[in-house]
Write a structure and sequence with these properties.
The chain has about 475 residues and is an alpha/beta fold. Helices cover about 35% and strands about 20% of the residues. It is globular and about 65 Å long. Bound molecules: flavin-adenine dinucleotide. Flavin-adenine dinucleotide binds near residues 128 and 314.
Length: about 475
């Protein structure tokens, strides 16, 4: 398989690695192990200090005396992380990738300088992020995402007593149950899953019977919350955070009336969406997925993107969950080593069968979850002019509307007129909302509206980092120390 893209801006670049993987979560770790075990030179980069990604965050060095309380799905990651840590794959932790070129060039911040490496094949497995929850007051101090509550718990064993959890989706119930198992008081759960969701998901119930264990796990979480006596307000809507300068209460409609509950701390969650800044900044083709109400990169059965030398695996290729993320990682790696000529087509097809079978069965279950926990429109596309859409630049619906009237009919034009999406998060927290708002205002399909144009650097970096530049050479991995920490 020829490699005719050994040129960057006219400079001949030697491909230091066969495969570079960005993100050491379940997808990235599985891909790295398959690739390395097939004799490829592999490097993996992750911005965290340890492998594990979101689900297996800190699983081998948990601050908790009994990490088992976080659930079997969490501690199950110890084996994968241990196998990965013992492997002699070149690993960069505390490495924040801010540029990926379709010519195999990767630039990243590490140890306060910029490092560069190149690879013949790239696997992007940089995971998911929590879906924005643009309601009144979500930008106020005291309001965080439920995922950040779990990050503080997994990283440092930190919890917040007497908080109100608001939203929908398996992760919300999991985090509440994790809190309750640790004896942390939860003031209330305001569940925004509408009645219509049950009606929409019911027809799929038989298709998920093969995944009864996963279904019962979900029911188990709801039972844990019910048995704890924590107040649960179901079918809630019209959620808003009250307070001047900080959150003081959460108001919502449920059981036929409006409620206003005092709350200093509110954790919001309405599902996760692919973390797209990297795949978009490379210019990979994306499409709008109505089932998951998000943008996704176009991928084939081998997780190959519109740039053949770049694969996307795990939740950043579309929300699949941890187990399926591992399968996507394996498939992406199997195709990469085939492209590198390390295995034959027949061996590729043979080795892929197990993961392909599992992945298609997981997708059946995913369809049920996506129908059941699809967030309601009023909590995704705000109509109240006061709602802050872009928290970085504090741009409200009203300000975006006037930008729209001034000619900002597309996300890029609106960004130019209002600075929405120009802040530290580079549009992560407002990109989907802006696309959906513009689709509404233009009365057009969201595919026609599109998304912000992402460019490198896709992460903030300071000039000092940019000025200190190092080329990374592959260690060829055998036996030598291959772990680089920040
Ligand atoms: C906050 C949060 C908490 C979650 N908790 C759970 C849970 O408890 N249980 C569960 O089943 N699912 C959970 N999920 C869903 C989770 O997405 C999947 O379970 C699973 O972790 C996906 O695996 P992955 O390998 O695709 O991505 P991830 O596990 O997310 O791994 C991606 C890795 O890439 C890194 N990365 C991203 N961008 C860059 C970059 N530019 N440079 C370098 N590194 C980068 C990330 O820091 C991360 O370590 C959670 C999701 C989120 C967002």
């Amino acid at each position: 398989m020829s490699n005719d893209r050994n040129m960057s801006n006219g400079v001949n670049i030697s491909n230091d690695y066969d495969i570079a993987i960005i993100g050491a979560g379940p997808a990235g770790m599985s891909a790295a192990l398959v690739a390395a075990e097939s004799g490829a030179t592999v490097v993996i980069l992750d911005d965290k200090l340890r492998p594990g990604g979101q689900i297996y965050r800190n699983v081998t060095q948990s601050p908790l005396q009994n990490p088992e309380v976080l659930g079997v799905d969490y501690v199950k990651g110890q084996a994968l992380v241990a196998r990965f840590e013992q492997s002699s794959i070149d690993k960069f932790f505390g490495a924040s990738v801010w540029h990926v070129g379709d010519n195999g060039e990767i630039l990243f911040s590490h140890a306060s300088e910029t490092k560069r490496l190149t690879a013949r094949e790239i696997i992007i497995s940089c995971g998911a992020m929590e879906r924005p929850f643009p309601i009144k007051g979500w930008h106020l101090p005291g309001v965080m995402s439920a995922g950040s509550a779990q990050v503080m718990l997994k990283n440092d064993g930190l919890v917040k007593d007497n908080a109100v959890f608001v939203g929908t989706g398996p992760l919300l119930y999991l985090i509440v149950a994790q809190y309750l198992r640790l004896g942390v008081k939860v003031k209330a759960v305001v569940d925004t899953t509408p009645v219509s969701a049950y009606k929409r998901a019911l027809p799929l119930i038989f298709s998920v019977l093969p995944h009864l264990k996963m279904l019962l796990k979900g029911v188990g979480l709801l039972n844990e919350i019910r048995k704890s006596g924590t107040p649960v307000y179901r079918f809630a809507s019209k959620v808003a955070i009250e307070g001047e300068g900080e959150a003081t209460a959460v108001s919502f409609y449920a059981n036929g009336q409006m409620h206003c509950m005092a709350a200093e701390h509110v954790f919001l969650h309405q599902g996760v969406i692919p973390n797209l800044n990297m795949t978009r900044s490379i210019g990979l083709k994306h499409y709008w997925c109505e089932q998951q109400l998000c943008w996704k990169p176009e991928l084939d059965q081998w997780c190959e993107s519109s740039v053949p030398s770049i694969a996307v695996a795990g939740d950043c290729g579309g929300i699949v969950g941890a187990d399926a993320a591992e399968d996507m990682g394996r498939l992406a790696a199997i195709q990469r080593i085939y492209r590198l000529g390390l295995i034959s087509q027949q061996e590729r097809n043979e080795r892929a069968k197990f993961s392909q079978r599992r992945l298609s069965s997981f997708n059946t279950f995913r369809r049920f979850i996506d129908r059941m926990y699809q967030p309601i429109k009023q909590h995704r596309v705000p109509v109240d002019d006061q709602v802050v859409v872009c928290r970085c630049e504090e741009q409200t619906v009203a300000q975006l509307k006037s930008g729209f009237v001034e000619g900002g009919s597309g996300p890029e034009e609106l960004k130019g007129l209002t600075r929405c999406g120009m802040g530290p998060c580079q549009g992560r927290q407002c990109g989907h909302t802006v696309s959906e708002l513009l689709a509404d205002w233009r009365d057009e399909r969201i595919e026609k509206v599109g998304y912000y144009r992402m460019r490198s650097p896709m992460r903030l970096l300071n000039l000092a980092e940019l000025s200190l530049f190092t080329q990374v050479e592959s260690k060829g991995t055998s036996g030598q120390e291959s772990q680089h920490e920040n």
